[in-house]
Amino acid sequence: MKISEISQRYGLTPDTLRYYEKIGLIAPVPRNASGIRNYSEDEIKRIEFIKCMRRAGIPLQTLIEYIELAKKGDDTISLRREILLQQREQLVVKMRDLQETLNFLEYKIKIYDKAVLNAKKDLRSENA
Amino acid sequence: MKISEISQRYGLTPDTLRYYEKIGLIAPVPRNASGIRNYSEDEIKRIEFIKCMRRAGIPLQTLIEYIELAKKGDDTISLRREILLQQREQLVVKMRDLQETLNFLEYKIKIYDKAVLNAKKDLRSENA
DNA sequence: ATACAGGCTGGAGTGGGCTCCAGGTCAAGC
DNA sequence: GCTTGACCTGGAGCCCACTCCAGCCTGTAT
To answer: According to the model, what pLDDT value does residue B128 have?
Structure first.
């Protein structure tokens, strides 16, 4: 698959895809005779992984470290597991934060609902 | 309260607090005779609000817009409400994303658990 | 033959959100 | 009276994660 197809499919610009390759997040993508990238299943899986992690805001640097370890083979399995555990923990914390903010927003919105209602009431009595 | 006290209490550096003031996120803080900021309840409430919103990743620009509206008085209530509704919606989406990534992480971690277990088994049989 | 789309590269630029710094003022303690 | 430390200012610098660009190449359509 060409870069533009991948781009469309995953909502990442070609520039971003090349950038990920440049910084070592994706292994050098195989090229055809005229130097054009031809993404295979391997790269696609990697991109899906990255996309998922990035949507949760996990930094590129963390992903690079993880992938570097993966390259080094089975000796790094427990280190990689550690990274995943850490990230999971951080996501849990982040979810809690989001939930708190969400609760606060709900609370404020309720207050605004009342305010809007009162404003309408005032308007009615003005017209009366 | 002095800037350093606020800084400690909310985990924002004095630089960040002054920065928020500079960009109009906090109204100019009252000063004592020698020009030193003296934060009052009003500012503290504002800072708590900002802190909460920022933890959920709501952009400074959005907060500035909201606060600009609040300054303009009651005519802007329903606009402000709209902003809050929008942010709530975005937070809900973000939570879903995080949950998905979390699920994926759980799944990967399980695979790693097995791999670590197998590695230990191999080690035992080597020693046997 | 040529125009054009789409790819390539290296490197510069951008936007968000801080963070750091030089150079200055001031109040308190020694 | 001098040092120290906390504060002040304007402005520069930094990190992250892209994003854009000039200048070049190539395969395909007209």
So the answer is: 57
